């Protein structure tokens, strides 16, 4: 899964370089999670997971607090979760997850971002079957054996574990994100290079230079959309 890890690192680096945008996206996601359940992470697992993920992007406390307070108040603002699937150059595959208060606007904007960059929208299920929903952690300062032993002792099911560039990468079941997070905390691991729920491609695709340029433009256009929360794809961008 080394090349998959490269894609995850590239995505994390891209988000870190666009802090105001990623803070806004997390603010919206935190609000939705808090609004759908109790606005308390101790009793709302979905909210707890979002907050644990937000920490790896250094989302400021005032943004988190503002989103939770908004959910506690009388705000009638509501968002729909939608997933769009599509194709880029040379059959590349893309998944776009959105939170929107205007589904028609979002669908039109996503379709335009695909179409203007050599891609096209697909039907539901046309792409997602080639991806696996997975929890991913990147850890430094521990060995692969130490991390694996810990997770086995705490009954966290590990899909895969590997080392790359001094980072231990752990892939677990998505419903065990919090359990794995707590297991790491029990041995003093509180900082992660990545702690994320993601759609991992089953196979990587390498594009020719011209196609890759069009593809990267398409991904940038999609990620720039206000209603887009996550964009997943199967293209190796590490070259």
TrEMBL record:
Its main location: cytoplasm. Coiled coil: none annotated. Residues 3-74 form the TACO1/YebC-like N-terminal domain. It is found in: Cytoplasm. GO terms for molecular function: DNA binding. Residues 79-235 form the TACO1/YebC-like second and third domain. Pfam families: TACO1_YebC_N (PF20772), Transcrip_reg (PF01709). Transmembrane segments: none annotated. SUPFAM superfamilies: YebC-like (SSF75625). Keywords: Cytoplasm, DNA-binding, Transcription, Transcription regulation. PANTHER family: TRANSLATIONAL ACTIVATOR OF CYTOCHROME C OXIDASE 1 (PTHR12532). Belongs to the TACO1 family. YeeN subfamily. This is Probable transcriptional regulatory protein ACFOUV_10580. It comes from Oceanobacillus longus.
């Amino acid at each position: 899964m080394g090349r998959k890890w490269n894609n995850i690192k590239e995505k994390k680096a891209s988000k870190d370089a666009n802090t105001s945008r990623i803070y806004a996206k997390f603010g919206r996601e935190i609000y939705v999670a808090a609004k759908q359940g109790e606005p308390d992470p101790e009793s709302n697992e979905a909210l707890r997971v979002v907050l644990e993920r937000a920490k790896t992007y250094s989302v400021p406390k005032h943004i988190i607090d503002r989103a939770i307070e908004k959910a506690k108040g009388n705000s009638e603002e509501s968002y729909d979760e939608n997933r769009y699937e599509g194709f880029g150059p040379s059959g590349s595959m893309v998944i776009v997850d959105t939170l929107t208060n205007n589904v028609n606007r979002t669908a039109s904007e996503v379709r335009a971002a695909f179409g203007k960059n050599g891609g096209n929208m697909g039907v539901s299920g046309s792409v997602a079957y080639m991806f696996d929903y997975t929890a991913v952690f990147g850890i430094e300062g521990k060995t692969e054996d130490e991390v694996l032993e810990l997770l086995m002792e705490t009954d966290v099911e590990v899909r895969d574990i590997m080392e790359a560039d001094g980072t231990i990468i752990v892939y677990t079941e998505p419903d065990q994100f919090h359990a794995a997070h707590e297991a790491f905390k029990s041995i003093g691991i509180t900082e992660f290079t990545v702690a994320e729920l993601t759609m991992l491609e089953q196979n990587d695709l390498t594009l020719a230079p011209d196609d890759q340029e069009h593809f990267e433009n398409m991904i940038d256009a999609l990620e720039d959309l206000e209603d887009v929360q996550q964009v997943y794809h199967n293209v190796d961008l590490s070259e």
